[in-house]
Amino acid sequence: MEEIISAALSTDADAKDFAALAVPESYRAAVLLKEEADMFEGMASADKDPTKALHIQQVPTPAPEAGEVLIAVMASAVNYNTVWSSIFEPLPTFAFLERYGRSGPAGARHDLPYHVVGSDLSGIVLRTGPGVRRWKPGDKVVAHCLSVELESPDGHDDTMMDPEQRIWGFETNFGGLAELSLVKANQLMPKPAHLTWEEAACSGLVNSTAYRQLVSRNGAGMKQGDNVLIWGASGGLGSYATQYALAGGATPICVVSSDQKAEICRKMGAEAIIDRSAEGYKFWKDEQNQDPREWKRLGGRIRELTGGEDVDIVFEHPGRETFGASVYVTRKGGTIVTCASTSGYMHEFDNRYLWMSLKKIVGTHFANYREAWEANRLIAKGRIHPTLSAVFPLERTGEAAREVQLNRHSGKVGVLALVPREGLGVDDPELRERHLPAINRFRTAVTS
Question: What pLDDT sits at residue 445?
Answer without folding.
Answer: 65
